[in-house]
Design brief:
Chain A: GO terms for molecular function: pyruvate dehydrogenase (acetyl-transferring) activity. The complex is a heterodimer of chains A (about 400) and B (about 400). With about 400 residues, chain A is of the alpha/beta class. Helices cover about 30% and strands about 15% of the residues of chain A. In chain B, the strands form three sheets. Chain B has a six-stranded mixed β-sheet, with helices on both faces. Chain B has a two-stranded antiparallel ribbon with strand order 1-3. A two-stranded antiparallel ribbon of chain B has the order 7-8. In chain B, helix 5 (about 140-145) crosses helix 12 (about 340-365). Classes of the chains: A alpha/beta (about 400), B alpha/beta (about 400). At the A-B interface, helix 4, helix 5, helix 6 and helix 11 of A face helix 6 and helix 7 of B.
C-alpha cells in the first residue's frame, strides 16, 4: 500500500481522503463522490442550491461605514452563553486567566511560567500578578529578552516532564521563536517516535489594539495554523479564557492560546466551581436559523454588536465562536450549516492565508451540499496596521460591515 | 607540564606518539594485566588543558585496563558503524542527510566515561555515535538510517533525529544551534526537580556563532543552571574554516563571564577528565564551556567530499598523528593489557557485529502506512491526526 495512492482531491488539498460516512443519504454520497474524482482539481463554480448563480460577495475593503463604533470591545454579551448563574463571581478576563493559571499551578507542581516580566512585575497585562510571590521565582520565571531561547528552553523542559507556560509579551514577539515553535515544539513528538511529549502552553496577546503600530498589532494565528503538531485556541470571554487556560495546561499537546490585547478588561460572571473548557469545541453563542456567523476572539464582540442591529431588522443569525482554531470544530459548525445553509466568517486575521481561508476550504470540502450561497468571509485588510486611529479602524472588520454582509447574504 | 619519564621507558618508546602515554614511574608492573582488570592507574594527558577564568584540572587521569579495553571496543564499533553508514549511503539505502562522526569518537566515549544516565546529553545532527554511547544499539541505528520501523524513532526521524529518553539522550536536531536553548531547558528542569545531575549541550564550531547560544548561556549563568556547553570544534562549519567564520575562534573563551576549558578532543582520557571536572563545576557553581579540539575525517555530510576546503594531507596527517582509536591501541599495547592480535580480534568482532546489524536492519520493513499520522498529537483525544478538519480521526488511504 503505497503512499502515492492517497487521493488528495477537492481542490484545497488540505486534508487527506474524505470519509463520506457523515453524509446521510446515498444520493448525497453519490454526489459527493462524483465530485471527488481523483486527479483533476476541478475549478469549483459557486452555485446556489436553487440554481441561480450566487451573487458576488461584496469586497469588504470598499465598504465604508457611515458611523464607526469604536468601543465594541466593552460590550457585555447579553445573548445566551454558557456562563453561569448569579451565584458565581465577577471578574475581568485577565483575572480569569490568572485564576485558571493559579489553580493549575496549585494542582500540579510541574506547571511553571516563563516570560518577560511575568514574575516581579506581575506580567505586562497583569495575568501573572502575585504568582511569583506565591510560587517563587523558579516557578514564575522572569526571563531576559530572548524569545527564541526561552521558548526553546520551555520545550526542552517539557521534554523532561515539566509543564511550562511561555508568555509572549505580545504574540508578535513570538515570531522570533518561530523556529523553536515550529521545529521543536510542533515536531518533536513525531520525530522522536512518541518518546517526548511537549505539554507547553504558548500564550500571549495578539490582535490589533489601540494604535499600537504595525509591529505590535500582529495576528499570528495564520502563521501557526499550518504547523503540524500544534493545537491552537482563541479565548474571547472570561469564562472561556479560564476554561481554556486550564485545558491547555492539562493538555499533553503543545497548545497556543491566543488572547487579545483589547479583551483583557472584559467583565463577566463566572462559576465558583471548577470547570475546564474543551479545547476542540466551538461555543454556540446565539442559536438562530437564518445564517451561521463564525467568528473568534475580538470579532465575536463585533459580531454581537452587529447582531443587535440585525435582530432588530428581523434577521435570526446563529453565532458560533469557533474557539478552536486548530483543529476546527467542524461538528458544531457543520450542524449549524446544515440548519442555516449560509455562512459568514468574521475574523481579525488577514485575508490572505488566514484562519478564514482555511475554514472556508474546510467547509466547502465537507458541507458543499448544504450551502445555498457562497461562503462570505470578512477579514482584516492585507496591510500592516497603520498608526492613525481612523485607518486602524478601517483595517479590521467593524459591526456595520457585518450588518451589510448579512443583508447581502440573506437578502 | 612535561610528563616525568624514566630513561628506561624512554628507550622503549621509539614512536613519537607513544611518548604521550607514559605513566608515572612505578617499580611494579602487573605481570599479567587482564583485560577485565579494574585496578586504577594514572595516565598523563599529553596536551595541556587551557583554562579561561578557571584553573584547569590536573593533567593526570585515572583509568583502568577494563576501561581502556571498553574505550577501544566502543570506539572501534563506532568507527565501523560510520564506515558502514558511508557504504550504505553510497548504495542509496540511506537517503537525505547523513553526517558522520568518525574521527570524533573520543568525545562521546570520554563523556560517557565520566557521566551517568541521569545526566542529559543533547547534540545536533552528528548524533549516530552519541546515540550509541547513550545505550543505543546498532540495529536501531541502521534501521532508522534506512527508514525502517525498527529504528530508534520508528523510521520517522532519520539520521538527524535519534533520541533515547530513558537514557537521557535528547537528540538529534537538524537546525544548527536550536538544540542549545532546549538543552538549557533540560538543565532548568534538573534544577527545578532538584536532581544532582547536569546537562551536556553539544554543538559545533559553526553553531558557536548562533545568537541563541549566548541568549541561553546568559540565562543558564543567571540562574546557575547545571548546563555544560560542549563545543565539538572540528574546525570546519561545513565548508567554512573556523578562522573564516569567527572573529574569535577560541570557542572556550567565547562564554566571556562563563569559565571555559580547552581539551584535546582526540584523547578520550583527556575528555573524561575534563567532563568530570565540568560536571562538578556545573553542579556547584553553574555553567562552564568546554571546547573539544577534534576532527572529522569525512566531509560535513555524505554530499560533501570534504576535500575542497581542506587538503588530503591535512586529513591523513590527523589520522596518522591524532587518531583517537590508535592512541588507545598504543596505550593498551604499551601497558601490555592486550596483544596486537587481541585487538585485531576485537576489531573483527566489532566488524561482524556491525555487518550483522546491517543485515538485520535490511530485513526490517518500512513503517506501516498508518504511521504517517501517528504521534502528530498525543493520543487521548480520540483522534490520531488533526488537520484543520476535526473529523479526520483515522486516515484511510486508498
Amino acid at each position: 500500500m503505497g503512499l502515492s495512492s492517497i487521493a488528495y482531491d477537492l481542490g484545497s488539498g488540505l486534508n487527506g481522503p474524505m470519509s463520506i460516512s457523515h453524509l446521510s443519504s446515498p444520493r448525497q454520497q453519490l454526489a459527493f463522490s462524483a465530485k471527488s474524482c481523483t486527479g483533476s482539481r476541478a475549478c469549483i463554480t459557486v452555485r446556489a442550491a436553487d440554481g441561480n448563480s450566487g451573487s458576488m460577495r461584496a469586497p469588504p475593503s470598499t465598504v465604508r461605514a457611515s458611523k464607526l463604533v469604536t468601543n465594541a470591545v466593552a460590550v457585555k454579551s447579553e445573548t445566551a452563553s454558557i456562563a453561569a448563574t448569579k451565584s458565581g463571581h465577577e471578574l475581568l478576563l485577565f483575572e480569569a486567566l490568572r485564576e485558571g493559571l493559579e489553580e493549575e499551578m496549585e494542582r500540579d507542581p510541574r506547571v511553571c511560567v516563563l516570560g518577560e516580566d511575568v514574575g516581579h512585575y506581575g506580567g505586562s497585562y497583569k495575568v501573572t500578578k502575585g504568582l511569583a510571590e506565591k510560587f517563587g521565582d523558579l516557578r514564575v520565571l522572569d526571563t531576559p529578552i530572548a524569545e527564541n531561547s526561552f521558548t526553546g528552553m520551555a520545550v526542552g523542559a517539557a521534554m523532561t516532564g515539566l509543564r511550562p507556560i511561555v508568555e509572549g509579551m505580545n504574540m508578535g514577539f513570538l515570531l522570533l521563536a518561530y523556529n523553536q515553535i515550529s521545529n521543536n515544539c510542533g515536531m518533536l513528538h513525531y520525530t522522536s517516535g512518541g518518546q517526548f511529549t511537549i505539554p507547553v502552553v504558548i500564550r500571549g496577546p495578539g490582535g490589533v489594539g489601540r494604535q499600537l503600530g504595525a509591529e505590535h498589532s500582529q495576528r499570528l494565528e495564520s502563521y501557526f495554523q499550518s504547523v503540524p503538531g500544534l493545537q491552537m485556541v482563541a479565548c474571547s470571554t472570561p469564562y472561556n479564557a479560564k476554561g481554556l487556560m486550564k485545558a491547555a495546561i492539562r493538555s499533553e499537546n503543545p497548545v497556543i492560546l491566543c488572547e487579545h490585547v483589547l479583551l483583557y478588561n472584559l467583565k463577566e460572571r463566572i462559576p465558583d466551581e471548577e470547570y475546564v473548557c474543551c479545547l476542540e469545541r466551538a461555543e454556540l453563542v446565539r442559536p438562530g436559523k437564518d445564517v451561521t456567523i463564525l467568528t473568534y476572539s475580538r470579532m465575536r464582540h463585533h459580531v454581537l454588536q452587529a447582531a443587535k442591529s440585525l435582530i432588530n431588522k428581523g434577521y435570526d443569525p446563529e453565532i458560533i465562536d469557533i474557539i478552536s482554531l486548530k483543529p476546527f470544530d467542524l461538528h458544531t459548525i457543520g450542524n449549524s450549516i446544515k440548519k442555516t445553509h449560509k455562512v459568514l466568517i468574521v475574523e481579525e486575521c488577514m485575508r490572505t492565508g488566514g484562519i478564514g481561508a482555511s475554514l472556508r476550504a474546510s467547509i466547502m470540502d465537507n458541507f458543499w451540499d448544504y450551502l445555498d450561497a457562497p461562503i462570505m468571509c470578512l477579514s482584516s485588510q492585507d496591510v500592516p496596521t497603520p498608526y492613525a486611529g481612523t485607518l486602524e479602524e478601517a483595517t479590521v472588520v467593524q459591526p456595520p460591515q457585518i450588518v451589510k454582509a448579512i443583508k447581502q447574504l440573506c437578502g | 607540564m612535561a610528563p616525568s619519564i624514566s630513561t628506561f621507558r624512554r628507550a622503549i618508546c621509539t614512536r613519537v606518539n607513544a611518548s604521550r602515554f607514559l605513566a608515572s614511574p612505578s617499580p611494579f608492573r602487573n605481570f599479567s594485566s587482564s583485560t577485565e582488570d579494574s585496578t586504577p592507574f594514572t595516565v598523563d594527558i599529553a596536551v595541556p588543558f587551557k583554562g579561561h577564568k578557571i584553573e584547569p584540572p590536573p593533567q593526570v587521569v585515572e583509568t583502568s585496563a577494563k576501561e581502556l579495553m571498553t574505550f577501544f571496543k566502543d570506539m572501534s564499533r563506532m568507527r565501523r558503524m560510520e564506515i558502514a553508514s558511508d557504504q550504505l549511503y553510497k548504495s542509496k539505502l540511506i537517503r537525505g542527510f547523513c553526517h558522520l562522526y568518525d574521527g570524533q569518537e573520543a568525545v562521546c566515549i570520554g563523556m560517557e566515561a565520566a557521566l551517568t544516565r541521569e545526566d542529559n546529553i543533547i547534540t545536533a545532527y552528528r548524533d549516530h555515535c552519541t546515540y550509541l554511547g547513550r545505550g543505543g544499539t546498532l540495529p536501531e541505528v541502521f534501521s532508522e538510517l534506512m527508514g525502517r520501523k525498527d529504528g530508534c524513532t520508528l523510521g520517522k526521524g532519520g539520521s538527524m533525529h535519534f533520541y533515547k529518553k530513558e537514557n537521557g539522550f535528547y537528540g538529534g536536531h537538524g537546525i544548527v544551534g536550536a538544540q542549545i536553548p532546549l538543552g538549557v531547558g533540560l538543565a532548568f528542569a534538573q534544577k527545578y526537580e532538584k536532581m544532582k545531575a547536569a546537562t551536556f549541550l553539544l554543538y559545533g564550531d559553526g553553531a558557536a556563532n548562533q545568537g541563541q547560544l549566548f541568549e541561553a548561556l546568559n540565562m543558564a549563568a543567571l540562574w546557575d543552571l547545571p548546563a555544560v556547553y560542549v563545543c565539538e570544534n572540528n574546525h570546519y562549519g561545513m565548508g567554512t574554516a573556523e578562522w573564516r567564520a569567527a572573529k574569535c575562534p577560541e570557542y572556550y573563551k567565547r562564554g566571556d563571564y562563563v569559565p571555559g576549558l580547552k581539551v584535546d578532543g582526540m584523547d578520550a582520557l583527556a575528555v573524561k577528565q575534563a567532563v568530570r571536572f565540568a560536571k562538578e563545576h556545573a553542579l556547584s557553581k553553574g555553567p562552564i564551556m568546554l571546547e573539544m579540539d577534534t576532527y572529522r575525517y569525512h566531509g560535513h555530510s555524505m554530499s560533501d567530499p570534504g576535500s575542497t576546503y581542506r587538503t588530503r594531507d591535512e586529513i591523513s596527517g590527523v589520522r596518522q598523528e591524532r587518531d583517537p582509536i590508535e592512541r588507545i591501541r598504543k596505550l593498551i599495547l604499551f601497558k601490555e593489557i592486550a596483544t596486537v592480535s587481541d585487538l585485531k580480534n576485537i576489531e573483527k568482532e566489532v566488524k561482524k557485529e556491525v555487518e550483522d546489524a546491517v543485515a538485520k536492519a535490511k530485513e526490517s520493513s518500512p513503517p506501516d502506512a498508518s504511521e504517517l499520522f501517528s504521534n502528530v498529537y498525543v493520543k487521548g483525544y480520540g483522534s490520531q491526526v488533526f488537520g484543520c478538519d476535526r473529523k479526520h480521526s483515522t486516515a484511510t488511504l486508498s
